[in-house]
Amino acid sequence: MDFEINTKGKDLFLALSSISLILMMVITTMLWWFVSPRLHDISEFLAKLSLTFLRIFYLVLVLGTILVYLTSYLEKNFLIARFAVRAYIKVLFPLTILLGSIFAISKDKIRESFVHVNNAFIKALKKKFKYSEVLILLPHCLQNTGCPIRITVNIENCENCGKCNIGELVQLAKNFKIPIAIATGGTLARRIIVENNPKFIIAVACQRDLVDGLQEVFPIPVYGVLNERPEGPCRNTRVSVKNIKLALEKILY
Ligand code: SF4
């Protein structure tokens, strides 16, 4: 069975970020054109320097865009110039969200699409990892709200009563001998990552937390799994354990 990574929703982010790039290039070029006579008056060197800086900036972003497109659609690893991909994401992600708000596209929709782009990168990596190099990171909202057991310090306290997915996930991690942890927030997630030093992370979270996490831990590859929220955000969320199992089967040696 193939690695069940859903990469089908990536078009929205790619389209919006490309439009954002074009708009940003047009606006900054116009701005430069307006201020360049003044810069020439101050110093020829300053005028040339600012133009060179602008050209390099555009070049990096265009290179990043090309690599992201090639990797996302051909699902082959073209992420050679990772700095360009990082610049593309860092600069264009906020602009893409801004552009989306003009077209009344929700932030979560754009974030979800970005997660699919990220997962296309993971699929393109075609790399295997040892079980000791992988970490499963879960959000606290997966735990059933009525559960009295403290699992944040030690997830193994879970008694696998079947009321939420935690028990199945702990069992899955045991079977594959990989570390699994629950993060109640960004600070704890960072600490868990530092302590485990993973080379590959399977992270379950909502759109916002996943996107923040993916950007923060870059260049560690993260397979992002969006949780389901049948009772709304942050309460009794669910996740497809089967999907995580398939991902593990595919990435482990
Ligand atoms: S599966 Fe574990 S965490 Fe979930 S409700 Fe049961 S004991 Fe609590």
Question: What can you see in these coordinates?
Answer:
With 253 residues, the chain is of the alpha/beta class. It folds into 2 domains: 8-122, no CATH class; 128-251, 3-Layer(aba) Sandwich (Rossmann fold), CATH 3.40.50. The chain is built from 8 helices and 4 strands. It has helices at residues 11-42, 44-74, 82-102, 107-125, 166-176, 186-196, 207-217, 241-251; strands at residues 134-139, 180-183, 200-205, 222-226. A 4-stranded parallel β-sheet has the order 2-1-3-4, sandwiched between helices. α7 links the parallel β3 and β4 (222-226). The two termini are 16 Å apart. The mean pLDDT is 91. Residues 143-144, 147, 149, 151, 158-161, 163-164, 166-167 line the site of iron/sulfur cluster.
Order of helices and strands: HHHHEHEHEHEH
Instruction: Tell how many strands the DSSP assignment holds.
Output: 4
Give the distance, in angstroms, between the N- and C-terminal Cα atoms. 16 Å
Content of β-strand: 5-15%
Helix content: 55-70%
Small molecules held by this entry: iron/sulfur cluster
Task: Fill in the CATH topology of the largest domain.
Answer: Rossmann fold
How are the strands of the largest sheet arranged? 2-1-3-4
What is the arithmetic mean of pLDDT?
Answer: 91
CATH architecture of the largest domain: 3-Layer(aba) Sandwich
Tally of contiguous helical segments:
8
**Oligomer classification:** single chain
Question: Which helices and strands, and how do they pair?
Answer:
Elements: H1 11-42, H2 44-74, H3 82-102, H4 107-125, E1 134-139, H5 166-176, E2 180-183, H6 186-196, E3 200-205, H7 207-217, E4 222-226, H8 241-251
Parallel strand pairs: 1-2, 1-3, 3-4
The structure holds iron/sulfur cluster.
